[in-house]
Design a protein that fits this description.
Order of helices and strands: HHHHHEHHEEHEEEHEEEHH
Number of domains: 1
Strand content: 25-35%
Radius of gyration: 21 Å
Distance between the termini: 68 Å
Shape: globular
Number of helices: 11
Number of strands: 9
Length: 285
């Protein structure tokens, strides 16, 4: 019996590993107290290329919204992405993101969707939304939808002429186009972000009023912005009707594999957007 009792801690430890009970902590970088001025934060606690390589999807999900914001404020936009990027969304931790989303969606779709439950939104996003495809030269993108079942009440049976892209041997439907440009961040106005704007997209080739208009100026008025953590890995913020509702991440494994080592050594990337006077001063020193 004593031997049995002595083995219990080992079994508990192994069960935790097998069941994934060990929870990731936030990224191992320096953070300031809540409400810290972003300019002062970046001056006193800049994120080095080595710091940025420690940030990963799992530890970002474990961070508080204040910590996510402090990371975002110390990033630059980097190059405007090109090609397909895998996507993951995550709600503000303890920030009431789902409650805000419920209010916006409930009043913003004008009866097009019925009985929408935000409790399932993040799970639905993981199942349906798989990322974005950037067309850098055209300054547009389209969202990758792997399952049209959720959108079937809107699209009906008319799915045959929706643009598709083969990803990992499977079809991905390309919907909800957006225009891509450099613009001011709604969180941190000291420098630009890459803006993903759904407001005026009806002139983009392949635009479908149903369902694409849901994201636009007559629907949820979605506006995203992203900044680069490291090549091939971007942190994003999504707004609906000018209200922040969720975070998301975009990754391209090919770019990560090809460019991370050089970035960790030099810290240099091509910047398409204005990096701000503070970063220019730091680069000149």
């Amino acid at each position: 019996m004593r031997r049995f009792l002595r083995l219990i801690p080992c079994w508990v430890f192994l069960a935790g590993l097998l069941l994934g009970c060990q929870k990731a902590g936030p990224p191992p970088v320096k953070f300031a107290s809540p409400g810290y001025d972003f300019a002062r934060l970046e001056h006193e606690m800049p994120l080095t290329p080595a710091d940025l390589t420690t940030i990963a999807p799992d530890n970002l999900r474990a961070a508080t919204q204040e910590q996510v914001d402090q990371i975002y404020a110390r990033l630059t936009a980097g190059p405007i992405p090109d090609g397909p990027y895998d996507g993951q969304m995550f709600f503000p931790k303890g920030g009431g993101g789902q409650a805000r989303l419920a209010e916006i969606v409930g009043g913003g779709l004008k009866g097009r969707l019925v009985n929408f439950k935000t409790a399932t939104f993040e799970k639905m996003g993981e199942v349906v939304w798989k990322g974005k495809v950037f067309y850098r030269d055209q300054r547009v993108l389209r969202n990758r939808i792997d399952d049209l079942l959720v959108l079937k009440p809107l699209i009906g049976e008319d799915a045959g002429n929706i643009q598709k892209l083969e990803m990992d041997g499977k079809d991905a439907w390309l919907l909800f186009p957006a225009k891509v440009y450099c613009g001011q961040s709604l969180l941190d106005g000291r420098r630009e972000s890459v803006i993903i704007d759904y407001a005026f997209t009806d002139d983009i080739e392949g635009y479908r009023e149903v369902p694409d208009a849901l994201a636009g100026r007559d629907g949820l008025e979605i506006r995203d912005e992203i900044r680069m953590i490291r090549p091939g890995f971007y942190l994003g913020r999504a707004y609906m009707k000018k209200v922040f509702v969720l975070n998301f991440m975009l990754t391209n494994e090919d770019v990560i594999q090809q460019e991370t080592a050089a970035f960790k050594t030099s810290g240099k990337v091509n910047e398409d957007c204005w990096v701000g006077s503070q970063r220019l001063t730091a680069m000149a020193q």
